[in-house]
Amino acid sequence: MNNDILKTLYSEEDIKQACKKLGKQISEDYKGKTPIIIGVLKGAIFFMTDMVREMDIYTKLDFIDVSSYNGGTKSSGSVKLIKDIDIDVNGQDIIFMEDIIDTGRTLKYLKELLADRGANSIKVCTLMDKPEGRVVEVKADYVGFEVPNEFVVGYGLDYDGKYRNLPYVGVLKPKIYSDQ
User: Most buried among 4, 44, 76, 81, using CB within 10 Å?
Assistant: First the structure.
């Protein structure tokens, strides 16, 4: 797997420091509250796990799964709900945990979905933000890193279901996905 990586963008230590910083900020912002942390599957599982361990507040956890890439390198343009959350969000404070925000379509869809369900507040925490990829106007409230417009994998991010288990974030060599 490591041979497929062009360069490392964020090391394990970089990611750990970002989680500590973001976890501290969220703990301060939500002091006295019990937000529902919703992980966006499958990419956010590593980030969400590390993030909640850095939070010094009560939380509830849930997961949602949506798809817009369908195994490729570009968003299909439509968002499909695969697995819904189990918790009633009416009147609750929500924090979405995302691995990366690219086009913004998924995030826009999720925020609208939970706003329609009566969430009190909806915030977004993402490990990486790729503003160059935006096609809809959305912003994250908590950002670990701003990434260049390259195809990144590792630490939950995948290409065709692979590379999620890399402990760092790297740029995938174009020859890996251009041969497909």
Answer: 44
